[in-house]
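Field reference: sequence -> structure
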Amino acid sequence: MEPSADNTIATILVVDDNEANRSTAQHTLENEGYRVIVASSGAAGIAAFDEQKPDCVLLNERMTDMDGFAVCERIRALPSSAETPVLFFTALRSVDMFDRTLVAGGDDFLTKPVRPTELIVRIQSALKLRRMNVELREHYELLKRQRDHLLRLQLQKERLTAFVIHDLKNPVNSMDLHAQVLLRDKGLSATARDSATQIRSEARRLTTMILNLLDLSKADEGRLTPKRSQLDLRRVVDDVFAELNVSARSRNVTLRTSLETDRILADEDLFRRTLTNLVENAIRHAPPETSITVAARHVAEGTELRVADAGPGIPRDMREKVFNPFVQVESSERDVALDNRGLGLTFCKLAVEAHGGRIWIEDAAPGAVLCVSLPHDP
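Structure field:
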């Protein structure tokens, strides 16, 4: 628990007209040793602040008697309120919300639903900043401006990502549709048919990349939640092989299976895209006239999936780093780079961990085995 500026127990004022929200915040903070004052309306919150002089304020953005911004402005007009951090609860996460928070005199905002751990960390950070403000005001102002600038950039990046994902979907879907129209032409030459098939394959790859971007954004915000069901593993593997068959044939690589189980508990879309990324990665690194094997078996903790290739392998000291975005691994065995060219393996790690599972790399001697373990129960 963070003490107040004079090293006493810190007092937190919670202003919210929703009883459940007030109760959750109060219990969470009291369990951490803070003294908590609650107010069920904006007017009551202003009065409580004037009387109690709390060290920090948690303020709901929307309330029936007056909105949180008006409450914050009234609090800032009171004597000795300039040093007190005010944190907003809000259902909105946007640049506009951030700007309104600053204009009203707020210091930070938390997006609903607020997780207890996040609430405690943000309170601790706010109180630390308050102490810094008291002790080193000039340094505090510099850090606050830098923090505000970085957060604004982050929010702008999230908005830009959302726009890019939305704008890319339509042309990619159009490419795929036109390729399908060409393939329906019975008079199409074999060469043109192969080209149209390749266009469809590449369009599906682009769609996967777009969806990976979307899910990475969700994971950053804690919103990547799998909808698990019992899947026909053999059917999913066959579908993925059919989708990647053109790519495998173009590299003279054979796709094989060794499935000791036909079922797996997973979110079908996330699992299908995870497997697609793993097999596609293996195809990219497999030498010609070799095979890639997808194996599955039951283990004590759940189901284990293994995708093995006969490529140059991945050095032991790089096996964790390849799951980071845009990582290149120089191979000592061949004059090539093994690389996570985009976000494929990064997405795999996030999707597997969202299931409560784990992903790792082993030697195939030669080659690499990308291993995934998913639990029997959520």
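Note: The chain is about 50% helix and 20% strand.
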